[in-house]
Protein: Ammonium transporter AmtB-like domain-containing protein
Amino acid sequence: MAEIPPNLLPDEASPYWMSKGDNAWQLTAETLVGLQSVPGLVILYGSIVKKKWAVNSAFMALYAFAVVLVCCVGWGYRISFENKMLPFLGRPDISLDQKFLLDKAYCDSGLFPIHVRCDHVLVAGALLGRMNFYAWMLFVPLWLTFSYTHTACSLWCPDGWLAKVGIIDYTGGYDRERFPPNNILLMLAGVGLLWIGWSGLNAGGPFAVNTDASLAILNTHVCTATSLLTWLLLDIIFFGNPSVIGATQGMITGLVCITPVAGVVQGLAAILIRILSGSIPWCSMMVLHKKIWLLKQVDDTMAVFHTRAVAGSLEGILAGFLANPKLNRIFYLHCIGLAYGLQNGRFTAGFKQMVVQFLGIVFVVVLNVSITSAICLLIQLVVPLRLTDEKLQTGDYAIHGEEAYTFWGDGEK
Structure:
């Protein structure tokens, strides 16, 4: 950085080091990411479940958004990206101090205040109409603090062990058989907001206004659209009906699959990812789930195992196989996908990248399963994890004393 001229005093509101263009884009990207949750996921979760779970599901998403925001600026951000104690463990520290929030953050291509880098996480889809709301209130901040942040520290903190080895990551009970949405039109509105908001997530990854951000937006939308159409086509071929809910699942798997490679793939590689993101999760959900005994035991309201776990693992593998070395240099310098390694005579480097990707997947799965299980066992000592049979039968009114849909005169004499 060039030193500030002695006759030029810094403006505290607009310091000399800040890139106004990059900062404006980051603020826009973070706003889009926020819209994914509120109102995107609130509307989606409130409409994609049975009528009796509409209030509870929407409120789970809204509560999670609020408590995650508080936890992130309170301590989660610095555990994830600052003050590393161990290769996968950050040190908790408050980040509400004005000097910290308005200090500068360095990246490969821009300078902007730190506060615009605080992201949020929501986990609820697999638990809708299942988990005790009081247990959910405890689970979210605990899971964020002890699971998500340490995963983030390993992957995205410059000193995290997975970052150092060069991993590529661009940024039971009732109703198990029949769980229809209560409002498909609202469900489509929710997934639409989720889709558009994802632009901020992926295109905000470079932390700058550049061609890579433009590529990330293009890949995000085209991959999502292709994945949706692939899922829709498979539904028509094998089941005879163009399912709206199926198309929604295909859209979500497309968003998940493209995220870690949005800015590091192009051309035929991007086309292949688009097709696989719609077909492989479809196969795992619609075929394997009905045939494999272990998968039949999974009580997963919104098929999160397939749209997130299967699609997420697929994205990690495809990143190691198809990442373009020229685009990788923007972020990782030395990384090369196996496909390009075979083409350029760098098989060893490409094979090493695949090993790193598999290692990252195994680490994230083991860490999250272990910590999440421990958190659930701990919460169960305080409040029941699962709703009682009576509340499962009744739904929203038994939990919140409120219902999503009421008619004039209900409850009146």
Remarks:
- The chain has a mean pLDDT of 79.
- The CA atoms of residues 144 and 332 lie 27 Å apart.
- The chain has one domain: 24-398.
